[in-house]
Amino acid sequence: MLSPKSAELVEATLPAVGAAIGEISRLFYDRLFAEHPILLRIMFNRGNQANGTQAQALAGSIAVFATGLLAGQQPEAMLRRIAHKHVSIGVTSGQYAVVHEHLLGAVAEVLDVTPDIAAAWSEVYWLMADTLISLERFLPRGQQEYRVIARFQETDEVATFVVRPVSGPVPPSKPGQYVSVHLPLPDGARQIRQYSLSGRTDDALQFSVKRDGEVSNRLHDFAPVGSTLKLSQPCGDVTLEPGDGPVLLASAGIGCTPMISMLAELAATDSPRQVVAVHGDRDQLSHPFRAELAQLVAKLKDARAHVFYERPIGEWPAERTGLVDLGGVEIPANTTAYLCGPVPFLRAVRAQLLAAGVTDIHYEVFGPDVVSAG
């Protein structure tokens, strides 16, 4: 909890900080990379820095955390998500002090705050940082070298990589988790990207990659069978929870990768749960794992699939043409929902689920989490 004096100052200045936090976060990254340019080359996603989504997520998460503190609660789901992402890219506890220096410096520069106000926001930061450090302490760390033992072209844009550790066993993973691929680039930088596991066996993992950006394109073009890749331990807090209640798996585009992993787990365990699988895509040819979706649903005792195409090829039901619409989908009571896809899809489907009375909703977003960060 915040100290009484800090709570009073944070509450008084939260509107001003909130209004300026986008500018603060952008200045923070400018300051950070000016003093530590290596971080942009070996840790931070250059694409997310260029399009501003990382700054947006940082700004929003701090504002959400401060608001939660004032209300006497912490945004646990957001913090777990950040902790898993930090561990997957190799953030260390010592780096929080570096972030503190430049973040508070940015706050002071933008708002010209008093020392007391700066100290109050410093308290907010360290409460958030200490919570994250505690969470990260219990998550598996480190990278492991894998060899690509097979590749499959799912669509023109999506390839699946099957990888086996060069030495040692395959680490444990849960359906819905991801791995970070640490990839050297021609300019000498090392960039890190997360890809959801789309399956696994006893001795191999598989992840699927859509062509989209410098790392994904390079994997498509320069990671043939026989090449080696450095991967993190499997991470991610959005995983299929055990139980016997109904499950809804909703995805769009390449967001089908964690969903197909969850569906495969349900089929492999001969689950009796009610399962509703929903997917949206451009058309039949752009839909990864289209055949697997139908096969896995057919294996389950009580499962239904609803597929929506924006521009279907050939004849297709009119009620499933266009964007995903759950209005015509029967959703059982007490459903647990798992979502993955672009941010507009996540927001739209979440709103539809809430309107239908579904509140147990978990989602995975590829990139900075601008959803929970507002």
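(ticket continues) Second input and output from the same batch:
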Amino acid sequence: MNNRATQILPHHSYVYSLGAPLACVQGTISKVFASPENHNGANHQHFVIKIDTVVKFEGGTEKLVGTEVFVAVRFGDNEGLAHEIPNLQAGQPIEAQGEYIPDASAYPTEDNRNPVLPVLHFTHHPIGYVKYQGQYYS
């Protein structure tokens, strides 16, 4: 899978970077998946955001406003968040930052298929975060 942005960006030096553009988006949660998925030994909380505003999009050219993006938030180890984000609910506003993987480069998972949506991953420290109900998670 080659997600390399058109330029080398500072966050690409981190071990979990896929060399993708850095996106910070605001929108509304359109779907929350019931249980975490264990992927490569780490738990991931999954939900979908319908994007209303693009705060930042470094290295990307896609038009993101109005689209949906699948979000994977790693938790439960020292690489991601300590715990799941509590009380995620469809219809609620949210902000998230992470690497943007276009649908053509995203691989299907149990929760992201038919169709495969673009993915926002690496949504934890040191480059990503989620802001939900006034709380900042990184």
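Agent notes: Residues 108 and 116 are 6 Å apart (CA to CA). The chain has a mean pLDDT of 86. Closing as not reproducible unless the customer responds.
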